[in-house]
C-alpha cells in the first residue's frame, strides 16, 4: 500500500479507502484514478487474511472430511461443495483427517482462526456420528452424516427413496419375484433401502416374502456367495445392496450358466462408475448423489436453502444400463 501511495502521490489512508471502496470517504476523482492506475501498474492485491481479521469474517467455507478426498466416488462431495461455494463468492478450504481425532481438532481450530464463514463436516458413507465439540464455535452443516440429537442441520441421501426406485425399475420390467441382497452392516443404508424395497412391492400389490431377503457382506465376495441361494430361490430379478455385491453376483451367476438379464435381471446401488459401467452387461443401478450432497450442504450453510426439522434428504436417481433388459 505504501508503494501504491508513493506512485499515486497520496496517503496510505487514501489508498486503503479506494481499494476497500470505503463508504463516505471523501476522495477526489483525480486522486481515485491515480490510485487505481497505480494498483494496476504495480499489480497490487489486498492482504485477504489481514482484511478477514480486521472485518471479522471471510469468504472461506471449511470442509472437514474423514476420508472422502481419497475415495473416488465420494470425492464428488468436494466437487459439488466447491462449485456451489464459488458460485456464491466463497472459496472452499478442504481438510482430510483420515478419521484421526487429533488432526480433526487441529484443522477445525485452524479454520476457526481464519474465521471461516462456516464448516461442512462430512463422512465418506452415510452414518450417525458424535459431533466434535469444537464445531459448536461456528455454523456447521453435516454432510452425508447426522447426529442423534439433530442439533445440527444435516444433508443426507434419501436411502428409502433409493431402495424404492431400484425396486420400481425391476417391477416396471415385469418382474414380480424379486430378491434383495442386503448388507450385514448396521446403517441407514441397510434399514432404509430395505424399507424402500418393501414400499415398492406393497405399492405394486406384490406380497413381501422374508425368504427373498438375503444378507451378505457388502463386498464382491458377499454377492458371489449369495449366487447359489439366488438361483435356488427361483427369482427373476435381484436388487443388490451396492454395486460391489452386484459384481460378485455377476460372477456367481455366470459360473452357474445364468444369463443377465435374460434369466435374472440385476440392479445395484451407488453407481460406482468404475464398476457399474464396465460390467458385462453394464449394470443398472441407483446413484448416491454425492455431488448434490456437497452443493446442498453449502446452500444450507449459506441460508439459501432452509434447514428443516430433520435432515435434508437428497434424491438418489436411477442410472439405467443393460442389466434389467
UniProtKB/TrEMBL annotation:
<protein>
    <submittedName>
        <fullName>LacI family DNA-binding transcriptional regulator</fullName>
    </submittedName>
</protein>
<keyword id="KW-0804">Transcription</keyword>
<feature type="domain" description="HTH lacI-type">
    <location>
        <begin position="1"/>
        <end position="55"/>
    </location>
</feature>
<dbReference type="InterPro" id="IPR028082">
    <property type="entry name" value="Peripla_BP_I"/>
</dbReference>
<dbReference type="GO" id="GO:0003677">
    <property type="term" value="F:DNA binding"/>
</dbReference>
<dbReference type="InterPro" id="IPR010982">
    <property type="entry name" value="Lambda_DNA-bd_dom_sf"/>
</dbReference>
<dbReference type="InterPro" id="IPR001761">
    <property type="entry name" value="Peripla_BP/Lac1_sug-bd_dom"/>
</dbReference>
<keyword id="KW-0805">Transcription regulation</keyword>
<dbReference type="Pfam" id="PF00532">
    <property type="entry name" value="Peripla_BP_1"/>
</dbReference>
<keyword id="KW-0238">DNA-binding</keyword>
<dbReference type="InterPro" id="IPR000843">
    <property type="entry name" value="HTH_LacI"/>
</dbReference>
<keyword id="KW-0678">Repressor</keyword>
<dbReference type="Pfam" id="PF00356">
    <property type="entry name" value="LacI"/>
</dbReference>
